[in-house]
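pinging the channel bc i need a second pair of eyes. not urgent but kinda urgent?? the chain im working w is below, pasted from the shared doc
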Amino acid sequence: MSSILLLEDDEELGEALRIYLQKAGYEIRLAGNCRSAEIFLTEYVPDIVIADIMVTVVINRLRKKIENNMTESVYIRNVFGVGYTFGE
């Protein structure tokens, strides 16, 4: 089973992505902030790291740790906007 470290600071979105990816057959570690991601990276080496674009500023701190632990690094920058409306 492939493992993913998902770094997402939006708790609801992170949980929704975790559930979706688990149902797709991935082992997911969900980190809500950079510090949690650092802890996860000392415990295991994920196959993939997916980071929220808003968190990528702090992921630069993690880049060296990720590159030292993973055999291959590919950075994909993704911008995704979601609009929420609540009632009228």
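so The first strand starts at residue 3 and ends at 7. and Helices lie at 11-23, 34-43, 56-69. — does that match what u expected or am i reading it wrong
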